[in-house]
Write a structure and sequence with these properties.
about 220 residues; mainly alpha
């Protein structure tokens, strides 16, 4: 009886943890589009220069709330080894940095706003690097005592694509800012689309990790 209860309880905890991963994945998949659409409907047309810029719109609470929700999950994330927990703690810290230190408003931000914006940018870069580490390293780990299933191999390919997509989008976003392409082509909002693509890649990776899709046939 006790063994049955322990098994059922453990199964419920595993299902709950998978559901949390899927929830975080869904936040990533939907966040850029919810922000853009919400601003369009509530404040009028016009795509902003970056995802973080929506902090200063009517969708600011949604942006901050989403980042804080992810931070809560990341701080509770433990995985299989100490480095999983460390990566989760760092992701939590960087997510809170993004949420609590808004990007500097444009144009002509004050000196204090520039300093706060610098903290935001560093937090954002480190957050994306940590997410790439999850996808490229932690998620692809396989139990050496067991043969990986075909679905696990397929999930690993998804993690790989998502991880490199995050890194490529991050590098291009930094390059775009350095070369001021975002100022040359503001109507295209290149940084927004690069950030949005990186966030969607992160969301897909976590949604797959939560077995929202590509789950093994039997557990």
């Amino acid at each position: 009886m006790n063994n049955t209860l322990h098994t059922e309880t453990g199964g419920a905890l595993v299902l709950s943890y998978l559901d949390l991963r899927k929830a975080v994945g869904l936040i990533g998949l939907l966040l850029p589009f919810v922000l853009a659409l919400g601003k369009l409907l509530l404040e009028g047309p016009g795509l902003l220069s970056s995802v973080s810029a929506y902090h200063h719109t009517v969708m600011g609470d949604v942006f901050v709330g989403s980042m804080c929700a992810m931070a809560v999950f990341f701080v509770s994330y433990r995985g299989y080894e100490d480095k999983d927990a460390l990566a989760g703690d760092l992701a939590c810290l960087f997510a809170l940095g993004i949420a609590l230190f808004p990007v500097a408003p444009q144009p002509a931000p004050s000196a204090s706003q520039q300093m706060i914006g610098a903290v935001h940018l560093v937090s954002a870069v480190c957050f994306f690097l940590t997410l790439a580490y999850f996808s490229l390293v932690l998620f692809r780990k396989t139990d050496p005592s067991r043969e990986p299933t075909p679905r696990k191999l397929l999930r690993n390919r998804v993690y790989t694509v998502c991880g490199y997509a995050i890194l490529i989008c991050l590098a291009l976003a930094v390059l775009t800012k350095l070369l001021r392409w975002d100022h040359m082509y503001p109507q295209l909002a290149p940084v927004f689309w690069l950030e949005a693509s990186a966030i969607v890649a992160f969301g897909l990776s976590w949604f797959v990790k939560g077995e929202g899709i590509l789950e093994d046939v039997s557990h």
